[in-house]
Amino acid sequence: MISLGVLVSGGGTNLQAILDAIEKEKLDARVRVVVSNKAGAGGLERAARASVPSVVVDHKAHASREAFDHAVVDTLRAHGVEWVVLAGFMRIVTPVLLSAFPMRVVNIHPALLPSFPGVDAQRQAFEHGVRVTGCTVHLVDSGTDTGPILAQRAVPVLEGDDVESLKARILVAEHALLPEVLQWIAEGRVKVDTGAGRARVRVTVGN
Ligand code: GRF
Fold first, then answer.
1. Cβ 181 vs Cβ 153: under 8 Å
2. What is the pLDDT of residue 205?
3. Mutation test residue for ligand 1: of 7, 54, 171, the one with most atoms within 8 Å of CB
């Protein structure tokens, strides 16, 4: 059983996928708290429906990204969180959060990193004309979408697709991949070798 803190900014469909996997006993975890930087985020309603405590930490109420992260870390620690999941969280995390949870912050990105990092990755891929895109689950480091990759899932771009239909297809893949990777973590199968140079992740049993 691992204790998760899930950070959201929007609809929270990835949070919902985690909650559903726990409910179906496909993920040996508990979501101890949901933290949103946006009041009114759909993820907060999803937390409430699942009787999961939630806290809004308004980034506009803090003088700096670091001050915001300190408030988030305090909230996560107060709820006994061991692993942090960025699920549709639209803030750049700082070393304040990363040092509090070293190599224990997981992000889901809607593209096959290192291609198309940053925002609106689905549109970037679509407008580039790729035939295959997808999603990536990775550990967060101090860069933007640059941390060690845990898993990826490919998603085809189909005839007649527009950005919205592609986003929807990628989201389905995200909802399958994120809980699966979190279960690998729950089973202790993700080892991070932070030896010399780039942190390497060894997933003893991966996809
Ligand atoms: C998802 O595409 C996720 O990859 C991106 O934000 C989108 C919305 O996520 N980071 P959610 O529905 O709020 O979980």
1. no
2. 52
3. 171
Torsion from C-alpha of 40, 46, 3, 23, nearest 10 degrees: 180
For residue 149, the one-letter residue type is: I
Number of domains making up the chain: 1
Could you read off the pLDDT of 139-166 as tens digits, one per residue?
Answer: 999 988 999 999 999 999 999 999 999 9
Q: Within 13 Å of residue 183, how many CA atoms lie on the same side as its CB? A: 19
Q: Is the pLDDT of residue 196 over 90?
A: no
What integer pLDDT is reported at residue 32 of this predicted model? 98
What's the pLDDT at 192? 80
Mean pLDDT (whole number) for 7-31: 98
Tell me the HSE value of 41 on the side-chain side, using a 13 A CA sphere. Answer: 29
- What domain range is 65 assigned to? 2-108+137-149+178-203
Distance 205 CA to ligand 1 centre (A): 26
Output the six-digit token pair for 59. 């980034």
| Ligand 1 pocket test target in 31, 45, 108, 177 with most atoms within 8 Å of CB | 108
Give the C-alpha distances (Å, rounded to integers) separating 77 from 53, 136, 174: 13, 27, 27
State pTM to two decimals: 0.94
Q: In the predicted model, what is the mean pLDDT of the chain?
A: 94
Flag whether 16 is in a domain. Answer: yes
CATH code, domain carrying 31: 3.40.50.170
